[in-house]
Amino acid sequence: MTTATTTSTPPTRFYAPTNPDCPETREAARMRREEFAFWEKHLPEPSLDIDLVLRRLQAITGKDLTEINNYISALYRLRELPKLAALQAKYFLLDFNRLIGIDKALDRLGVAPQFLYDQVDQALIDYLTPRRANQHLPTRANIVRRVREIITALDDTIAMRKGHKKRRFRSDSEFISLEVEEETRAIIDQQVREMAKELGVPLADAAVALLTGAVKPTAHVILHTYRATDVEFAPTFIEGYGTTLENLTPTVVRDESQVEESCSYKTPDVMAKFIEGRDGTCRFPGCKRPAHKCQKDHCVDFSDGGPTHPSNLFSFCQHHHNMKTDGRFYYIPHPETGDLVFLFEDGTWEITEPSGPLSPKQKHWVQSVSQNIQARRRSSRAEAQALKIELDGQIVEIYEAPQPDPDEPAPF
Ligand SMILES: [Zn+2]
């Protein structure tokens, strides 16, 4: 008797929505592919009367005009990102929600030369390459944050424009809202949080107390920042704000080697900041809650001998922490990468990567930003030299420009 064997090997790295063993993911992929194909087919030529096209698409799909505009704009954007477009054509990995997020984030570039789009394209491909089996696909918020980081690193003027957003205060029958630049928002947010802690009241009550003048604001609000000190031109990550290329001068500097196991149940502050810097957000798949607003979960309970140490502590928002406490999922950490394998009640599983500034992926990113800035400075230096040759017919080498070593790991 002979036995037939198949020789095809299953992929070892893929995102959960392209899991080859799951029939439901194939159905969902078909749905994304068909939606994509529909809009590609009806994508209007730029020469057509756009108002008439929009009216017709509105009648066919029942979607509102803003939504239709977003779909069209996202598809046109893909034409500027050929590698991402090729990836999309192969797997239909990204839904329109994510594609629209990418498009809108790239609006900040304005009308940019194609080489800038090429760099964004490559950086996005690197970011969207899975590293594990059944890995959680980055959320729209994760992807948008990454696009912002990429374009900030490519174009310093964008970082500057970002800080000059017009402030707006609105008060209507139900809400009071305040629109300010992101850095100010991070400071106000921190002020309200610290006051709530000090008074032992909810955040809303602390905000009211501050704004009505019932209490005096804390004189110094602490903003936590992360920066690779031994990488030249390394960007700074500000908790609750994002990345900046500005050179901030911190009042207190802590090294990650200062993190040592604690014998108490409570996570010490320095350790908490390290864990938040590694995790970025709540570690549950798809949750966007920033890590600094999360609780720290002992993976192995403290009472069962689980240490108070980053290798056993992970950020979870209140809701997902409750789910874990109720035994609705378990997770197993990878000791070096900080990846978490989640096992759910229904027998399914998924992997999430940490996404904070201290995570391995972010370290590579820091290295590439630094290389990018160095490359840009070298090219402007080469241009200046070419001009000098033109003017004087000779050149004097003043210093040797340092060459980046692409194989060197990011030193943190
Ligand atoms: Zn969560």
TrEMBL record:
From the UniProt entry, list the residue stretches annotated as the region Disordered.
1-20
Locate the HNH nuclease domain: which residues? 270-322
Keywords in alphabetical order, please: Endonuclease, Hydrolase, Nuclease
Question: Which regions are flagged for Low complexity bias?
Answer: 1-12
- What is the top-level taxon of the source organism? Bacteria
Can you name one GO molecular function term for this protein? Answer: endonuclease activity
Q: Which residues form the signal peptide?
A: none
**Which InterPro entries does the entry link to?**
HNH_nuc (IPR003615)
Q: Per the database entry, which stretches of residues form a coiled coil?
A: none
Query: CDD domains, alphabetically?
Result: HNHc
Q: What is this protein called?
A: HNH endonuclease
Native source species = Corynebacterium phoceense
